[in-house]
UniProtKB/TrEMBL annotation:
This is UDP-2,3-diacylglucosamine pyrophosphatase LpxH. One of its GO terms (molecular function) is metal ion binding. GO terms for cellular component: membrane. The lineage of its organism: Bacteria, Pseudomonadati, Pseudomonadota, Betaproteobacteria, Burkholderiales. Keywords: Cell inner membrane, Cell membrane, Manganese, Membrane, Metal-binding. Residues 6-204 form the Calcineurin-like phosphoesterase domain. PANTHER family: BLL8164 PROTEIN, UDP-2,3-DIACYLGLUCOSAMINE HYDROLASE-RELATED. Gene3D superfamilies: 3.60.21.10. It comes from the Bacteria. GO terms for biological process: lipid A biosynthetic process.
Amino acid sequence: MMHYRAIWISDIHLGTTGCQANYLLDFLKHNDADTFYLVGDIIDGWRLKQTFYWPQSHNDVVQKLLRKARKGTEVIYVPGNHDESARQFFGMSFGDVKVVEEIIHTTLDGRKLWVTHGDLFDGVMQYAKWLAYVGDSLYTFILYINRYFNLIRIKMGLQYWSLSQYLKHQVKNAVSYIADFEHIMAREARLRNCDGVVCGHIHKAEIREIDGLLYCNDGDWVESLSALVETQEGELKLIYWTHIKGDPEEAPEVAVQSPIEMLTNEAAI
């Protein structure tokens, strides 16, 4: 078990067929931290409104995170656009999970990192949300193909590889959009007198300096299968979990609950 000062994960998209829940469960089994940041799009409310999809592995992810919170890990949830309904609960806690609009993380060496999902600074989300819905449908279709593509790769003894991420990064406009987003986030961090930013939203894991500011994106759990961590020595680095290192923990024989039921029950404890 590796133990870090902090772990950031986002864009899990529980409730969709594209979510790589088994890989995430294995990551959570082998990694812990003083503070866990859930940086938005944890549960995909957009997709669940259309078709309810909630297998046991998605249930297990939520239970695993709640269990970490019960055992003393500080778990902080910053909702994104796909789980925007959770934004009505800013300032509240559910099962020891704190829901916040944004937060500042201070690294071991004293740097202040602004933590936010990032959708509020995405021009498409703010001014053409209908386009975001259309893009989400196309993206879901590509992830559907990606799922079966990787089942074949696994049977061949090959590791996970994201067809959808490869296609996205071949499109010039998509690359330009990502670059613009990264610079906007760095600028917003400067306006907040921070030394850098940690965000998600665009599903592209990255650590780099932009105009003297540190830009960190923790990636996602549908394409890159990545997390951002701060080690006990204060180093920030990305971890890619494209191999399952051990069998996921066996789930108890219980009925599968919806995410709302689980959070409600935890809040009542």
